[in-house]
Amino acid sequence: MIVANGEYDNAGLQRLGSPAADADALAGVLADRAISDFDVSVVRNETAHVVQAEIEDLCAEGGPDDVLLLHFSCHGLKDDSGGLYFAARNTRPDRLRSTAVPAQFVQQCIRQSRSRSIVLLLDCCYGGAFGQGVAVRASGDANVLDSFRGGRGRAVITASNSIEYAFEGARLASDEPARPSVFTSALVEGLRTGEADRDEDGWIALGELYEYLFDRVRERNPKQTPSRDIEMQGELYLAKSRRRRIKPSPIPPDLAAAIGAENPFTRLGAVAELRRRLSSSNLPVAMGAFEALKTMSSTDIEHVAAAASDALSFAVVRVDTPSVRLSAAADSRASGSLRVLGPPVAREVRFEASHSWIVVTEVAGGAELSVTAGDAGVRRGKVVVSGPTGEVVVAVEIEALPVAEPEAVVAEAEPEPAAPEPVAPEPAASEAVVSEPAVSEPAVSEAVAEPVASKLAASEAVVAEPATSEPATSELAAPESATAPEPAVGAVPEPAAAAPGSVVAEQTRRLATDSEPEPVVAAEAQPAAAAPVPVARPATEPAGAMDPVGGFAGVVAIAGAVFAVAGLPLKYRYGYSLTQYRPGMESAVLIVAACALLAGILTLTPRTRSWTGPALLFGTGLAALFGLLRFLGEAIALSQNGDTELKTGYTFALLAHIAWLVAGASALAALRRSPAVALGAGRVRGWPAWVAIGLGVAAATGWIVQLVDLNTYDSSDAGRATAYFLLGALLAVIVPVVAMTLRPSPVGCAVLATGTAGLLGVLAPTFAAVAEESSLALGGQLIAVVALVLLAADTAVLAVRARNQPNGRQS
Q1: How many separate domains does the chain show?
Q2: Distance between CA 769 and CA 321 in Å, rounded?
Q3: Distances from the Cα of 546 to the Cαs of 42, 602, 618, in angstroms?
Q4: How far apart are CA 614 and CA 604, in angstroms?
Q5: In this structure, how many other beta carbons lie within 10 angstroms of the beta carbon of residue 532?
Q6: If residue 624 lies in a helix (H) or strand (E), which one and from where to where?
Q7: CA 93, CA 10: separation in Å to the nearest integer?
Q8: What range(s) does the Peptidase C14 caspase domain occupy (predicted)?
Q9: In angstroms, rounded to a whole number, what is the distance separating the alpha carbons of residues 487 and 493?
Q10: Which of 10, 180, 439, 452 could form a disulfide linkage to 185, CB 3.0–4.6 angstroms apart?
């Protein structure tokens, strides 16, 4: 039975991350019938009375020949009189007798059991881990073993022998997927690999297991000292081992006589027979032949020794590849395989990885490798393949592939209009190309409209689409005429060409404030340059037919927001919601959900669906990358233990972020299809755009600085918080760079607005990651906060500049 309590209702007991991982890892290895014959049950995060009932059932139902194993992973607490208690979900530090599991109760159950072999494993933080306001009474020694003395046929092994903590693989109140504690991880490793079988007889005895645990725990953490109290007659074997040593069979007398013969040719014949025996599936026979050949290769004459050495090379440990080179995304896994070659005795091997990020699973004929990439660069390690006939080292490398940045959108080149045939200028009328609908202002005379219409038909000039839904004049190009022409309606004249209050001046003012033109080739080749025909970018979009891609993006974005909000109160992992299990992440999710809801509505609204809604939605998709990668990373990390325990709340959050990413990609496609937007990518222009990129880099630098400070203060906390700081830093660089290279400028401003909102949401989980480290400097966090606040202000400046952009210029 595995009792794992890491979640506590009382605020005075900090949450433990390791018990859940301890339970998963130990249950997995004990349930493996190739290792043990235990029937495993797990009691996870239950109240004291439930735990007591399960313990009593275990001890009462055990028969005389049953081996009972009871593993505790929780807080270990002591009362004022020195009594030891195991913390349960409902434990109160000031009411231990009624809310915790007394060690005396466990002792009584053990004594009353009929089983003659009971093993108690205690992986506890003796002395407790209390929050503020609760005193810790530490006498220097918890005297844990004294609580279980007396009685035959029972053994107690503890993770530590005094007030010291039983250190976790992930520290208290972890914000990252927990790993098993130092003690339990060594226990699992010793059973799984068989390394605890020190005499290599194929069985792991209790004494061998303790010696292995002592060495491994002290090696990993010198401040933690396992202890034991074993009162058993004879040896108790807990598990089977694959490290069984092969005992060589003696050489038959006739073959032994040939090996010692004076005639070297007789000895060469003996070498041939030994080589044949070396291929036998009877491993003791093969090992006897191997030992005899090894002696002959070192003591016989040159020719016989060479033949013996050649026979030995046939049976040495060999694999199909000298190295395994893999690649995967950062913090992701890649798989490889090793196949062992040679006769049966050469394939009787075991595998040992040099690093924890290399997981080796033995299979028939070899092993499967599961290798985790680092944050960046190349990880290098090795797998040692050893057997009775030798060993070989296989190099293992895995390269972390960079995260693909969103591709910059390149504007589709519009074909240049064909140059019209020259037309003789009218002596008394200006030559202009008028766009539909026709100007209805009373100040425009019919005498001007008629020749304009005739020239439109004759020259086949480009007809511009109406810029707004109002009956306003569009942009017109006015080529030079033989006489001094009057300004063309809607064209951008020289400052002195339009009288104040005239129709031309009014149209010039509208174009200067409502559009960002792109110059095109003039309609007629004249000695003087003709006025350019601008590509209009409307300030208020027309209510045309809805683009199905944009409509799909809006619906998916709104659906993602609904999923996110609905999933927040649901259980995320075990019995806890996202807010309780991952503090701060709920703020990031809610901010992106709000942006997605707003952008989705604007994408479906007629007056804003051409570019405002899709642009905001594309920025929301960029902001959602943080949560998507964070949630996917958690599922991958937890799946390594075989039981993720992720609930409906996690599923809702993951689906929401996938929906937002799909909506963002669809919004980008809708922008490219929109006739109101000439979307393209270009170089960064204007100091506010460079300031935005610089502030994004500053925010990323701040988060990296904070991560370095946290790693200096506590490397295990830094390891769990790496995902928050690195993903936030990556997003802080990507968002402004992508936004500031988009054209026209208002589209980039909209993308930057929702992207910056998502970056502000990242601040909550990064602060939560360091909230409990009161002595940690927060200089990096301050840099990130100031940079993001200034980035939000700079976004507003960019929006104002884009709105007031004069005609003929772009920033």
Answers
A1: 5
A2: 43
A3: 56, 12, 18
A4: 9
A5: 18
A6: helix 612-639
A7: 8
A8: 1-229
A9: 6
A10: 180
Do residue 49 and residue 104 come from a single domain? Answer: yes
394 and 281 in a common domain: no
Which of 469, 472, 465 is closest to 489 using CA atoms?
Answer: 472
Residue 383: Cβ-neighbour burial (10 angstroms; 0-12, 13-18, 19+): buried
Q: Do 157 and 145 meet the contact criterion of CB atoms below 8 Å apart? A: no
Specify whether the CB–CB gap between 537 and 746 falls below 8 A: yes
CA-based nearest residue to 125, from 23, 2, 6:
6
Provide the CATH number for the domain around residue 330: 2.60.40.10
Confidence of residue 99 (pLDDT cuts 50, 70, 90): very high
Residue 608 DSSP label = G
Apex 96 CA angle, 157 and 183, nearest 5: 25
- Taking the C-alpha atoms of 646, 647, 652 and 657 in order, what is their torsion angle to the nearest 10 degrees? -10
Q: 635 and 625 in contact (C-beta within 8 Å)?
A: no
Half-sphere exposure of 111 (CA within 13 A, CB side): 11
691 and 774 part of one domain = yes
In one-letter notation, the amino acid at residue 757 is A
| Domain membership flag for residue 417 | no
CB-count exposure of residue 85 (10 Å: 0-12, 13-18, 19+): buried
d(CA 432, CA 721): 65
Encoded amino acid at 777, one letter? A
**Structural contact between residues 181 and 167, judged by C-beta atoms closer than 8 angstroms:** yes
Whether the link from the prior residue into 744 is cis, omega within 30° of 0, is yes
Distance separating alpha carbons of residues 97 and 119, to the nearest angstrom:
24
For residue 438, pLDDT beyond 80: no
695 and 611 in a common domain: yes
Question: Is residue 420 included in any domain, yes or no?
Answer: no
Boundaries of domain holding 452: 446-514
Q: How buried is residue 247: exposed, middle or buried, by Cβ count under 10 Å (0-12/13-18/19+)?
A: exposed
d(CA 520, CA 420): 14
Q: What is the pLDDT of residue 681?
A: 61
Helices and strands of the chain, counted as H and E runs: 21, 20
Cα–Cα distance between 58 and 118 in angstroms, integer? 11
User: What mean pLDDT, rounded, does the chain reach?
Assistant: 75
Q: 215 in a domain, yes or no?
A: yes
Q: Can you point out the beta strands (E) in 330-489?
A: 333-341, 350-353, 358-363, 366-372, 378-387, 390-401
Per-residue pLDDT of 633-650, as tens digits, reads 878 877 765 556 788 888
Q: How far is CA 12 from the centre of its chain?
A: 31
Is 521 domain-assigned? no
- Judged on CB neighbours under 10 Å (0-12, 13-18, 19+), 180 is buried
Residue whose token pair is 């092994």? 157
Count of other CB atoms within 10 angstroms of residue 779: 12
The confidence score (pLDDT) of residue 14 equals 78
